[in-house]
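Quick one, probably user error.
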């Protein structure tokens, strides 16, 4: 982990983010009644894009707290998370597990880590400095 002032808070936020993604992937889609199904059919077609975008965001999130040398670990653990989601979706009646979803997850991870490697990684250090400002620098021994 990078030398952050609030590493515990970053870990808690990351855990909550993963929990929210996990919960969202297992929620039943009860809000899609038949008459609205055609109106919102684009959402069903956009499923793979949503997987890619969510996992790219997760990769960018965790790249903010870890050094470049640890990006392979981020990729590995997010891939395991994607497999866990698909296994859990297979166990519930209202969701389906697909290899294409897992492939979209991996593509998102690669995209997110590539963006991080080209300069966005470590962003949480900048956030802490921005919010902490000069007061935090002066308070440091």
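Nope, works fine. Designed sequence:
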């Amino acid at each position: 982990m990078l030398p952050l002032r609030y590493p515990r808070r970053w870990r808690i936020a990351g855990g909550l983010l993963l929990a929210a993604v996990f919960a969202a992937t297992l929620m039943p889609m009860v809000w899609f009644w038949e008459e609205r199904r055609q109106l919102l059919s684009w959402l069903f077609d956009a499923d793979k894009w949503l997987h890619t975008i969510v996992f790219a965001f997760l990769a960018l999130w965790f790249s903010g707290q870890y050094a470049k040398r640890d990006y392979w670990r981020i990729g590995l653990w997010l891939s395991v998370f994607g497999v866990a989601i698909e296994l859990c979706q297979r166990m519930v009646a209202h969701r389906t597990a697909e290899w294409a979803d897992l492939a979209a997850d991996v593509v998102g991870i690669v995209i997110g880590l590539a963006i991080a490697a080209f300069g966005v990684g470590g962003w949480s250090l900048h956030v802490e400095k921005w919010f902490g400002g000069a007061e935090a620098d002066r308070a440091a021994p």
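The first helix runs from residue 7 to 26.
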